[in-house]
Amino acid sequence: MQRHREIIRERKQREKDQRIQGILKAAKEVFFSKGYMKSTMDEIAYAAQISKPTIYQYFRTKDELYSALMLPFLEEFGSQFERIAKKLDTGKYADGTAFVRDIFKGFKRSYDAAPDSLRVANSFFQQSDLISALGDDTRLAISSRGRYDFELARGLLEKAMEQGLLRRMDPYALSDIVWAMLLGITQVMDMKATRHTRTDRYLRSTLREAEKLLCAAIAL
């Protein structure tokens, strides 16, 4: 009897997870096609082939749904940075090249884990009207996570300079340069992508070349 109840709970959890993923997939399609401001929960419900009240069982507002799409990349990238921080703290890097390579590796892993989440994040940080349209709680959650990642990245670069892994320079400027390279490259690949050419077809090779350029410029 106990095992039977466990099987039922597991089935219900799978159904719940599938329903949430279906809602997120539909929301992503609607947001990308119409933009956040013009999208409605009715349209998302229609795309997901469920009722609007069903969406509200999982997501209380459109803001919350948008946040659920965006945060996975920021959280995963932050986790990758935290792993790099541990390696720095324990002196695991023999030179700056290995450190820079880990930053690019962490970005690739984060992109692979949540490519559409990165696209949503790019859209958010570029649109001031979108930022102001979100509710206070959602805006704070997203901004706080983004700020955490930016500050963590800058701290890593500063520490790498202190350990003699990177050339001395303004860590704020260098952090912005690294972010611009990583996010800008993915945006360019998205712009070049067509129905027959996926974003990731040339993304990895382009990131490899960017990694080489950055290593040559700043690694010791």
Number of helices: 10
Distance between the termini: 64 Å
CATH superfamily of the largest domain: Tetracycline Repressor, domain 2
Order of helices and strands: HHHHHHHHHH
Question: How many discrete domains?
Answer: 2
- Helix proportion range: over 70%
From the helix content, strand content and strand pairing, which structural class follows?
A: mainly alpha
What is the molecular shape? globular
Rg (CA only): 20 Å
Task: State mean pLDDT (0 to 100 scale).
Answer: 87
Most strands sheet? none
CATH architecture of the largest domain: Orthogonal Bundle
- Please mark out the parts with pLDDT under 50 across 5 or more consecutive residues, or reply none: none
For the record, what CATH class of the largest domain applies? Answer: Mainly Alpha
| The CATH topology of the largest domain | Tetracycline Repressor, domain 2
Strand content: under 5%
Number of strands: 0
What does this structure look like?
By secondary structure, the chain is mainly α. It has two domains: 1-59, Arc Repressor Mutant, subunit A, CATH 1.10.10.60; 61-218, Tetracycline Repressor, domain 2 (Orthogonal Bundle), CATH 1.10.357. The protein is built from ten helices and no strands. Helix 4 (62-89) packs antiparallel against helix 5 and helix 4 (62-89) runs parallel beside helix 8. The longest helix has 33 residues, at 2-34. The chain is globular, with a radius of gyration of 20 Å. The protein starts with a helix and ends with a helix.
